[in-house]
Amino acid sequence: MANKPKKVVRSWVKERVAFDRELKDDKFYNSWPWRKARKAFINKNPLCVHCEENGEVTAATVVDHKIPIKQGGEPLNESNFQSLCEKCHNKKSANESRGYGVKSR
Ligand SMILES: [Zn+2]
Q1: What is the pLDDT of residue 97?
Q2: Which of 1, 30, 57, 60 is surrounded by the most beta carbons within 10 Å?
Q3: CB–CB of 82/48 below 8 Å?
Q4: In the chain, what is the straight-line distance between the N-terminal and C-terminal CA atoms, in Å?
Q5: From ligand 1's centre to the CA of 18, what distance in Å?
Q6: What sign results for the dihedral spanned by CA atoms 103, 28, 13, 18?
Q7: How far, in Å, is the centroid of ligand 1 from the Cα of 51?
Q8: Cα–ligand 1 centroid distance for 23 (angstroms)
Q9: Are 88 and 80 in contact (CB under 8 A)?
């Protein structure tokens, strides 16, 4: 058998290295424990909590950390999770990157 070495294109490797400095939590978000916890949580909490507060019913697509991991939030503790739809999640992320301290309550 002639085993020709397959050429694997790994253009993403470079990208990852470049991102690595900044995105330590990226590794976390790709980790199995997180994916498992996320899936279990969204199954139990399928609706966006922000929309729900406003009397709307929207399917959640994102499990968000109430306290971001970067700010010391527990990464795998369900009490730090909340289900959000993409719109609310984007809004929240935008707020967080603009500056912290806007508490909803
Ligand atoms: Zn929402």
Answers
A1: 72
A2: 60
A3: no
A4: 68
A5: 32
A6: positive
A7: 4
A8: 25
A9: no
- Cα of 49 vs centre of ligand 1, distance in Å, is 7
* Distance between Cα 48 and ligand 1 center (Å): 5
Radius of gyration of the chain (CA): 18
Alpha-carbon distance of 96 to 8, in angstroms, equals 38
Per-residue pLDDT, 26? 79
The label of the residue with tokens 């719109």 reads 87
- pLDDT by 10s per residue, the chain, length 105: 666 667 766 665 555 555 444 556 678 999 999 999 999 999 999 999 999 999 999 999 999 999 999 899 999 999 999 999 999 999 988 887 765 544 444
What is the distance in A from the centroid of ligand 1 to the CA of 46? Answer: 11
48's tokens: 């966006």
Structure token digits, residue 78: 């369900």
Query: How many angstroms does the Cα of residue 56 sit away from the middle of ligand 1?
Result: 8
